[in-house]
């Protein structure tokens, strides 16, 4: 068994062609055609356990590879790996791999799921004292009648520190545009077997009570970056309202994670990333505001903002392709890969830390929203932002509370909190509508589908009361 550390980067096919001619690469290169078959049970038990099993053929040589449960933060993949030569495309599942133990009797259900057909170009390069294998993979992933193009750079650490991978990645990005890849080839194949997605929601974060605060933060922030990148990839293909919304949610979740864990992070790091993420959120926010406004207007009013909306969509694409956004993603990925500069206090257990942070946020929302109907709009907005942070924190830490009573309380609590968020969001829409109308030269009497302030305040007050009475799942 070995452990691989590799940084994956997405790039275009044209970018891959130009990168293969990069003058920083050594003259000698290896080129191979790699065909691989991936296996699982019909109900994808291996994927559910974060294990992949493939047999890859290059020429006459076949190698079976099992990759085990590992971490993938912003393109840096660290995984256990078992390899062995095999004679055919039939997996050998003995005690040398974790597959039989993972599946039990279901091991007999193993069958081909999808395949990859790739041309691989490979170089050995040096970065200071480190040695790195760089490959460019171009080809397709096929699952039944469906297929998707694949084009990525892999930088695998042969010797030295992981920082070398990011130094090389930045030099590559100065030559051709690249972004941290967050999907393995196996994940791409499984996605082809499912429905076509217009957006990707946040995935549950895999936490347990034995984790340190540092490990929990890295898992949470890595999940936020993955959430963002998957939706950004969809947006770079074609503008999708839902993908834009989810990309913005991912940015907000990452900003909330930085706030939740700021006591164990370097102040300068938090300030630097918050500033850039705030800028990115604002960039996405203009388009999101117009999308929401468009959906609430009648056809005549929709036509009045059509040009502004199209321009905002174009700006999103332009900025997402900018060096500033790409650099931010690489900076965050490297920061997480190298441990995020967490202080010694982050070695403590995350369980007590999570309960303390949730309790503090709950108190702010519960007290801040008292007598909500009399609060001025700016204080209502503050309660709304605190409620959003509490909602994200409750989702981040859900894995720490796995017993049935806690799960039941968690479900009821998040449901009450979500309803409060919705009501406060309606109030915020009402408060911001005049500025939106003025910005896009819309008349005040266009019939925006928003209830009166009095009705919204009454509903928000009731939602706040139900939230304040909801059971605390972290007790």
Please specify the SSE layout and strand pairing.
Layout: E1 2-10, H1 13-19, E2 30-40, H2 45-48, E3 52-58, E4 61-67, E5 71-73, E6 76-85, H3 99-103, E7 111-127, E8 130-143, E9 146-159, H4 163-175, E10 179-180, H5 185-192, H6 213-237, H7 241-260, H8 267-296, H9 299-304, H10 306-320, H11 323-337, H12 350-368, H13 377-396, H14 404-439, H15 453-469
Antiparallel strand pairs: 1-6, 1-9, 1-10, 2-3, 2-7, 3-4, 4-6, 5-6, 7-8, 8-9
Radius of gyration of CA atoms, rounded to a whole number: 25 Å
What would you call the shape? globular
Q: Number of DSSP strands?
A: 10
Largest sheet: 8 strands, antiparallel, barrel
What is the rounded distance between the termini? Answer: 41 Å
Assign the structural class, choosing from mainly alpha, mainly beta, alpha/beta, alpha+beta, or little secondary structure.
alpha+beta
Fourth-level CATH superfamily of the largest domain: Hypothetical Protein Pfu-838710-001
Indicate the low-confidence ranges by residue numbers: none
The CATH architecture of the largest domain: Beta Barrel
Number of domains: 3
- Quote the beta fraction: 15-25%
CATH class of the largest domain: Mainly Beta
Protein name: CHAD domain-containing protein
């Amino acid at each position: 068994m070995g452990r691989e550390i590799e940084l994956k980067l997405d790039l275009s096919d044209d970018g891959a062609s130009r990168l293969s001619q990069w003058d920083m690469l050594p003259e000698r290169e290896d080129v191979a055609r790699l065909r691989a078959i991936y296996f699982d049970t019909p109900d994808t038990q291996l994927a559910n356990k974060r294990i992949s099993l493939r047999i890859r053929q290059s020429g006459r040589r076949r190698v079976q590879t099992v990759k085990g449960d590992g971490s993938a933060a912003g393109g840096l993949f660290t995984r256990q790996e078992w390899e062995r030569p095999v004679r055919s495309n039939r997996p050998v599942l003995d005690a040398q791999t974790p597959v039989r133990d993972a599946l039990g009797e279901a091991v007999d259900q193993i069958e081909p799921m999808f395949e990859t057909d790739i041309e691989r170009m490979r170089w050995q390069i040096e970065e200071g004292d480190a040695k790195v294998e760089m490959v460019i993979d171009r080809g397709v992933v096929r699952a039944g009648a469906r297929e998707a193009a694949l084009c990525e750079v892999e930088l695998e650490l042969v010797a030295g520190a992981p920082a070398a991978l990011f130094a090389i990645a930045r030099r590559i990005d100065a030559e051709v545009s690249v972004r941290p890849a967050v999907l393995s080839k196996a994940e791409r194949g499984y996605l082809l077997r499912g429905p076509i997605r217009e957006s990707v929601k946040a995935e549950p974060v895999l936490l347990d009570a034995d984790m340190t605060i540092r490990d929990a933060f890295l898992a949470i922030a890595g999940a936020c970056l993955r959430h963002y990148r998957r939706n950004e990839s969809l947006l770079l293909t074609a503008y999708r309202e839902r993908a834009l919304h989810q990309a913005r949610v991912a940015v907000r979740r990452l900003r909330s994670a930085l706030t939740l864990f700021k006591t164990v992070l370097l102040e300068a790091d938090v300030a630097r990333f918050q500033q850039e993420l705030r800028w990115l959120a604002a960039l996405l926010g203009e388009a999101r505001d117009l999308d929401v406004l468009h959906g609430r207007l009648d056809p005549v009013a929709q036509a009045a903002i059509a040009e502004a909306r199209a321009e905002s969509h174009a700006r999103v694409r332009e900025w997402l392709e900018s060096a500033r956004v790409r650099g931010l993603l690489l900076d965050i990925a490297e920061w997480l890969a190298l441990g995020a500069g967490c202080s010694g206090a982050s070695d403590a257990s995350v369980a007590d830390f999570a309960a303390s942070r949730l309790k503090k946020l709950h108190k702010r929302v519960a007290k801040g929203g008292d007598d909500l109907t009399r609060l001025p709009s700016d204080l209502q907005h503050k309660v709304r932002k605190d409620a959003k942070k509490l909602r994200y924190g409750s989702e981040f830490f859900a894995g720490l509370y796995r017993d049935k009573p806690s799960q039941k309380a968690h479900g009821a609590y998040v449901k009450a909190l979500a309803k409060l968020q919705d009501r406060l969001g309606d109030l915020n829409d009402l408060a911001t509508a005049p500025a939106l109308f003025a910005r896009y030269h819309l008349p005040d009497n266009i019939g925006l589908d928003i209830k009166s302030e009095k009705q919204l305040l009454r509903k928000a007050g009731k939602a706040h009361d139900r939230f304040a009475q909801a059971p605390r799942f972290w007790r």
